[in-house]
Write a structure and sequence with these properties.
binds cobalamin; globular; 2 domains; Methyltransferase, Methionine Synthase (B12-binding Domains), Chain A, domain 1; 5-stranded parallel beta sheet; 11 helices; single chain; 58% helix; 212 residues; Rossmann fold; 11% strand; alpha/beta
Length: 212
């Protein structure tokens, strides 16, 4: 099997160590890091997303695939050129304050990275000040907020309000998602968009950045 196929399969099946071995062998053969992502790793995470969407994959399968993909992309990212790294646009994302759910966010991160966006993941339980600081410092095209409980949803308008107060709201598109959030809620709080799942999150970012 060609390395592309092997890497795709290893990522999709969440075989992290196998994926790392294939990547280092490919690098030893002087294959371009961007090509490794584009021809092997990205198709692997996209395939996992497809199997999840079709109900063939269960949550643990998706988590393993996401972890394998993230491992590989973190290893390859420093090797990419500036242009390649910035990719099609940049996104800062995190789960809002008080919220420790991250599985859905991590899938969104992996799918966005897989689609060529540069993603800074602030992690879980992110305070509004940290979102604002990150927007100020790294000037991303999009800020993604995840909330997975009805109790933490209300942090989202607070983040937007803090952006307004910091004079940064016009600089960044704000998208929201997570099981607790709805399209109506996104509109109500003045977000620029809502994504029901990771695939929608990617097409939303594409639409907001005028790329698709
Ligand atoms: C796994 C889980 C946990 C794990 C989280 C592990 C982790 N590392 O993430 C643990 C055990 C830690 C946990 C803890 C708690 N949980 Co919990 N948890 C869940 C569970 C079972 C699954 C969530 C999940 O991962 N779903 C799968 C992912 C793929 O779906 P998703 O998150 O919706 O993400 C998709 C989309 O929403 C979208 N998306 C996600 N993020 C973003 C972001 C953007 C910007 C966009 C555009 C799109 C997007 O794309 C994703 C991929 O398609 C749900 C119940 C359920 N079946 O949904 C409860 C649930 C969310 N938990 C709940 C609760 C109450 C808690 C606890 C308070 C429980 C407790 N009493 O201790 C704590 C709170 C911890 C905290 N401070 O946050 C409640 C929330 C109820 C509510 N009021 O809304 C739920 C709904 C369970 C229930 N029915 O009561 N939980």
């Amino acid at each position: 099997m060609a390395w592309e196929e092997e890497l795709k399969r290893a990522i999709c099946e969440g075989e992290e160590e196998q994926a790392e071995r294939i990547v280092s062998a490919a690098l030893d053969e002087n294959i371009n890091p961007w090509e490794i992502l584009e021809r092997g790793a990205i198709p692997g995470i996209i395939e996992a997303g497809r199997l999840w969407q079709e109900g063939e994959y269960f949550l643990p399968d998706v988590i393993l695939a996401t972890e394998a993909y993230n491992q590989v992309s973190v290893a390859l990212e420093p090797l990419l050129s500036e242009g390649e790294r910035r990719g099609r646009g940049s996104v800062v994302i995190g789960s809002v304050e008080g919220d420790a759910h991250e599985i859905g966010k991590n899938i969104v991160v992996a799918m966005l990275r897989g689609s060529g966006y540069q993603v800074t993941d602030l992690g879980i339980d992110v305070e509004k000040e940290a979102f604002v600081e990150s927007v100020r410092e790294s000037n991303p095209d999009v800020l993604g907020l995840g909330a997975y409980m009805t109790t933490t949803m209300r942090r989202m308008p607070e983040v937007i309000q803090s952006l307004i107060e910091a004079g940064l709201r016009e600089r960044v598109k704000v998208i929201v998602g997570g099981a607790a959030v709805t399209e109506d809620y996104a509109k109500k709080i003045g977000a620029d968009g809502y994504g029901k799942d990771a695939a929608q999150a990617v097409s939303l970012v594409e639409r907001l950045l005028g790329g698709g």
